[in-house]
Design goal:
The complex is a heterodimer. Chain A is α/β, with parallel strands linked by helices. Chain A has one domain (3-131): Response regulator (Rossmann fold, 3-Layer(aba) Sandwich), CATH 3.40.50.2300. Helix content of chain A is 41%, strand content 22%. Chain A has helices spanning 22-32, 45-55, 71-80, 98-106, 119-131, and strands at residues 3-4, 13-18, 37-42, 59-63, 88-93, 111-114. Chain A has a six-stranded mixed sheet with strand order 1-3-2-4-5-6, with helices on both faces. In chain A, α1 (22-32) packs across α5 (119-131) and α2 (45-55) packs parallel to α3. By secondary structure, chain B is of the alpha+beta class. Chain B folds into five domains: 2-113, 2-Layer Sandwich (Beta-Lactamase); 145-249, Beta-Lactamase (2-Layer Sandwich), CATH 3.30.450; 254-323, Helix Hairpins (Orthogonal Bundle); 332-478, Heat Shock Protein 90, CATH 3.30.565.10; 486-611, Response regulator (Rossmann fold, 3-Layer(aba) Sandwich), CATH 3.40.50.2300. Chain B is built from 19 helices and 22 strands. In chain B, the strands form five sheets. In chain B, strands 2-1-5-4-3 form a five-stranded antiparallel sheet, sandwiched between helices. In chain B, strands 7-6-10-9-8 form a five-stranded antiparallel sheet, sandwiched between helices. A five-stranded mixed sheet of chain B has the order 12-14-15-17-16. Chain B is elongated. The chains are: A alpha/beta, B alpha+beta. Chain A binds chain B through residues 20-24, 26-27, 30-31, 34, 43-44, 65, 67-68, 94-97, 114-120, and chain B through 265, 268-269, 272-281, 283-284, 287-288, 294, 297-298, 301, 304-305, 432-434, 437-438.
Chain lengths: 132, 612
C-alpha cells in the first residue's frame, strides 16, 4: 500500500485502487497523477476491504477477479455498509463476460471499464463518479 | 333293463343334443344316441364295436381310467373333461356327467362338446402369458436402459420407477410407487435446485399437451437432468393411457460446458491483463508530456507485459498441442544426469538459491524426449526459484524406484497449502496467498509439465508440509530396457528430424538403429547395445562428437565403423584427425545426407562381414 499525495487547489478525494496486478495499479497511478486525488493501492480483496473501511474513500476502482475477496464481494459489502453510502464504485474487469458486467451493475456499481481500457476513458469516468 | 323299453324314454334319449350313453363296466358302449354320430362322425355301430378307451386321446386315457374306477365304486362324476377322436382324425373336448347303476354294472352318462370353450380358454391363457412375458421384458428393458424412466398410469398414479430414476434422484421406488404423480414434486423438493421452477414445470407436465421437456439439478450428489414427459396413447383410438417421464443424465455434458466457459473466461482474462498495460501506457506516452524516468518505467513495463503475453500464448499453444495429442514425442534412451546438468546450466547461477544435484550413481538410461524433459526440468527449477523469495538451496535428486526413475526438485520456499495440491496441475490454477503477491506466471507451466510427463507414461506430483515449509515436486520416467537399447547402428545426433530420417534409411537396408541425442547417452549405450556401426554428429549439446569418438576408440576399445554427418566446416587438420580415428566417411548435412550415410554404413558392414 502506498498513498500518493498530490497538491491541488480542488477539494481532495481519496480513491482506492484494488487490483492484484502491479502493472495495472501502476497504470492507474500514472493515469491519475494529473488528478487531485489521494490514491491508495490494495493488492488483494482482503487488503482492499480493510483499507476501504479505514479510509471511507469517495471512489473505489475494483478489479473483479482478485485473490481473497472478489471485486463483486467487496461491492456487495460496500453497498451493505451504511457508512459507505457515499462511496462510488468503478469495476475494472478483464473478463468482458456479460454475466460479470450485469452482476456488477445489478449490485450497484456506478461504472465499469473493460481491460484493456484507455487512461483518458478512466479519467472521464473518475471525474463523472466524483463530481456529478 | 326296464326303462330301455319305455317309448317316452326312448324318444327323449334320441332327441337330446347332448351326447347320452350307457356303457358297461366291461369298457364297451351299450347304447348311444344320435348326438354321438353328429359330433364325432362315427356310426353307432363303429363306436360300439371297440372299447370306448380306443376313442379317447392317449394323453387323457389314464385320467379316464381313474374316473371309471370311481364310478364302479359307486361315485358320481361331474365336470370331468377328456378328448374323443372324430372320424376325420381330429379330437373334440367332451365334458362329462356320469353315474353308475350299481346292480346292472352299467354307467349312464351325458357328454357335451365343449371344444369351443376349451379352445377359448387356451387362447386366453396363452394371451395372458404373452402379455406377462411382454411386460416382464419391457420392465427388464426399462430397468436395464441407462436413463431414468417413470411410468404414470391413466389414474395419474406412479406405476413404475426404475433403478436409474432412483440413482439419479436419490428417491427410492417404494416412496413413490402407487402414489399420485402430483406428489412427485413434494418428494423431490428437498433435493432439487430452484424448486419453484421445478414445481411449475411438473404442474404443466401432465396437462394434455404433447411433450414437455425441462432441466433440473439434483443436489448431493449433483446431477444435471433433462426431464422429458411424453404421453402414452392407445394406437387404436388415441385414448390417453398415461405418461412416461424420462430422466436423462446430462451432468457430464454440463460439466464440459462449464469447463469450456471457465477456460474461455480465463484465457480472456489472462490476455486482457497484460494488454491493459500495453494499451494504457502507450496511450499515456502518446498523449502526455512525461519525464525521461517515467518514459523508461512505462516502456519497461510494456516490454515486460509484452513478453508475458508471448509466454502465455506459447504456453497455451503448447498445452493445446499436448492435450490434442498433436505434439509428438521423440522418445529414445537418454542419460538423465546429462539432462539434469543441462537444465541446471540453463537455469544459471544464483547465490540466494543455489542448485545442488545429488543423483544415484547406478541410474539406468531413461526413455525420454530430451527437449520435452528439459522443458519440464526448467519449469520445476524456475518455479522453485520463483517461489523461494527468501532464498534457500534447491535440491535435485534422482533414484530408481520400482523400475522407474524418480526425479525430484525440492525447495525451501513458500510451500503449498494442502488444499492447493490437488488443483496445482490444473490449467490457470495459481495458489493465492499474501506471500505470492507480485510473483507472476501464466498458471500453465505445471499443466504443461503434467501433459509432458503423462505422455511419457510417467507420473507427476507435488508435496509440501504446508505454507512456509518448502515444496517438493517429482516425476517418474521409465527406465530403458534391453529392447529399447538394441540396434545394429548407433545414431548420435541431437537433430531429431535428421535422426528419424536416418533411422528410416537404415531400416530400408534391413538395419535397426538406436538413437542417442547426446554424446553422454551414446557413451552409456555403446556398452549396452551390440551396435556394429555409428553415425555421428560432431556438434552436440554436451560433450562433442570428437570427444565421443576418442573415447569410443580408447576407453571402449571399439573399432566399429563410424560415419560422420555434420554441418561443421572442417579444416584439413580436423579432417585428418577424423580419418586417423578411423572414420569411413565424412558427410555434409543436407537433404540427401541420410540416404548417403545409410549407404556408407551398409557398405562398411558388408565389407566387414565378407572380410571376416
Amino acid at each position: 500500500m502506498s498513498a500518493n499525495k498530490i497538491t491541488s487547489t480542488r477539494s481532495r478525494h481519496t480513491v482506492v485502487i484494488a487490483d492484484d496486478e502491479p502493472s495495472v495499479r501502476m497504470l492507474v497511478q500514472a493515469t491519475m497523477e494529473v488528478d487531485s486525488v489521494d490514491l491508495i493501492e490494495a493488492a488483494d480483496g482482503e487488503e482492499a476491504w480493510s483499507l476501504i473501511q479505514k479510509h471511507r474513500p469517495a471512489l473505489v476502482l475494483l478489479d473483479v477477479r482478485m485473490p481473497g475477496r472478489t471485486g463483486l464481494e467487496i461491492l456487495h459489502a460496500i453497498k451493505a455498509d451504511p457508512e459507505l453510502t457515499g462511496t462510488k464504485v468503478i469495476l475494472l474487469t478483464a473478463s468482458a463476460q456479460e454475466s460479470d458486467i450485469n452482476a456488477g451493475l445489478l449490485a450497484g456499481a456506478d461504472f465499469y471499464l473493460t481491460k484493456p481500457f484507455s487512461p483518458r476513458e478512466l479519467l472521464s469516468k473518475v471525474d463523472e463518479a466524483l463530481f456529478l | 333293463m326296464a326303462i330301455t323299453n319305455d317309448p317316452a324314454y326312448e324318444s327323449f334319449f334320441n332327441l337330446s343334443v347332448d351326447m347320452l350313453c350307457v356303457a358297461g363296466y366291461d369298457g364297451y358302449f351299450k347304447r348311444l344316441n344320435p348326438a354321438w354320430t353328429n359330433t364325432l362322425g362315427f356310426t353307432r355301430a363303429e363306436l360300439m364295436a371297440r372299447p370306448y378307451m380306443d376313442f379317447i386321446h392317449p394323453d387323457d386315457r389314464a385320467a379316464t381310467v381313474a374316473e371309471a374306477e370311481k364310478l364302479t365304486q359307486g361315485a358320481r362324476v361331474v365336470h370331468f373333461r377328456n378328448r374323443y377322436e372324430c372320424r376325420d382324425g381330429t379330437y373334440r373336448w367332451l365334458a362329462w356327467a356320469a353315474m353308475p347303476t350299481g346292480s346292472e354294472e352299467l354307467i349312464h352318462a351325458i357328454a357335451r362338446d365343449v371344444t369351443q370353450e376349451v379352445d377359448a380358454e387356451i387362447a386366453l391363457r396363452e394371451a395372458n402369458l404373452a402379455a406377462a412375458t411382454r411386460l416382464a421384458l419391457l420392465t427388464a428393458l426399462i430397468d436395464a436402459i441407462g436413463v431414468g424412466v417413470v411410468l404414470i398410469d391413466r389414474d395419474l398414479l406412479v406405476a413404475h420407477w426404475n433403478k436409474e430414476a432412483t440413482r439419479l434422484t436419490g428417491i427410492q421406488a417404494e416412496k413413490v410407487l402407487g402414489r399420485p404423480a402430483r406428489l412427485l414434486g413434494e418428494a423431490i423438493a428437498p433435493r432439487v435446485e430452484d424448486f419453484p421452477s421445478v414445481r411449475s414445470h411438473l404442474e404443466h407436465a401432465f396437462s394434455p399437451v404433447k411433450t414437455a421437456r425441462f432441466q433440473i439439478v439434483i443436489l448431493e450428489p449433483r446431477h444435471d437432468l433433462e426431464v422429458t414427459v411424453s404421453r402414452a396413447v392407445l394406437a387404436a383410438d388415441g385414448q390417453p393411457v398415461g405418461s412416461v417421464i424420462v430422466l436423462h443424465d446430462i451432468t457430464a455434458a454440463k460439466e464440459l460446458d462449464r469447463a469450456k466457459d471457465e477456460l474461455v473466461a480465463m484465457v480472456s482474462h489472462e490476455l486482457r491483463t497484460p494488454l491493459a498495460s500495453l494499451v494504457g501506457f502507450s496511450e499515456l506516452l502518446l498523449s502526455r508530456q512525461v519525464s525521461d524516468a517515467q518514459r523508461k518505467l512505462y516502456l519497461e513495463t510494456m516490454l515486460k507485459e509484452g513478453h508475458r503475453l508471448t509466454e502465455l500464448i506459447n504456453d497455451f499453444l503448447d498445452l493445446q498441442r499436448m492435450e490434442g495429442g498433436f505434439k509428438r514425442l521423440d522418445l529414445g534412451p537418454a542419460d538423465l544426469p546429462t539432462l539434469v546438468a543441462r537444465a541446471v546450466a540453463t537455469a544459471g547461477d544464483n547465490a540466494r538459491t543455489p542448485i545442488e544435484v545429488d543423483l544415484a550413481h547406478d541410474l539406468p538410461l531413461v526413455i525420454a524426449d530430451t527437449n520435452a524433459i528439459h522443458q519440464v526440468l526448467i519449469n520445476f527449477l524456475s518455479n522453485a526459484r520463483k517461489y523461494s523469495p527468501g532464498g534457500g538451496t534447491i535440491r535435485v535428486n534422482a533414484r530408481m524406484a520400482d523400475n522407474v526413475v524418480e526425479v525430484s526438485i525440492q525447495d525451501h520456499g513458500l510451500g503449498l497449502p494442502s488444499e492447493a495440491i490437488p488443483k496445482l496441475f490444473n490449467k490457470f490454477y495459481r495458489v493465492a496467498n499474501v506471500d505470492r503477491r507480485g510473483i507472476s506466471g501464466t498458471g500453465l507451466g505445471l499443466a504443461i509439465c503434467r501433459g509432458i510427463i503423462e505422455a511419457h507414461g510417467g507420473r507427476v506430483a507435488a508435496e509440501s508440509a504446508g505454507l512456509g515449509q518448502g515444496s517438493r515436486f517429482y516425476f517418474t520416467l521409465r527406465a530403458a530396457d534391453r529392447k529399447a537399447t538394441a540396434g545394429d547402428v548407433l545414431i548420435v545426433e541431437d537433430d531429431t528430424g535428421f535422426a528419424r530420417l536416418l533411422e528410416a534409411e537404415l531400416s530400408l537396408r534391413g538395419l535397426t538403429s538406436v538413437w542417442a541425442s547426446d554424446a553422454e547417452t551414446a557413451d552409456q549405450l555403446i556398452d549396452q547395445t551390440d551396435a556394429r556401426a555409428v553415425v555421428l554428429d560432431l556438434m552436440l549439446p554436451g560433450a562433442s562428437g570428437e570427444d565421443f569418438l576418442a573415447r569410443l576408440r580408447t576407453s571402449h576399445n571399439s573399432q566399429v565403423p563410424v560415419v560422420v554427418v555434420t554441418i561443421k566446416e572442417l579444416d584439413a587438420t580436423e579432417t585428418l584427425a577424423l580419418r586417423t580415428a578411423g572414420v569411413v566417411a565424412i558427410l555434409k548435412k543436407h537433404s540427401g545426407a541420410g540416404k548417403e550415410a545409410a549407404e556408407y554404413v551398409a557398405a562398411a558392414l558388408e565389407t566387414r562381414h565378407t572380410g571376416a
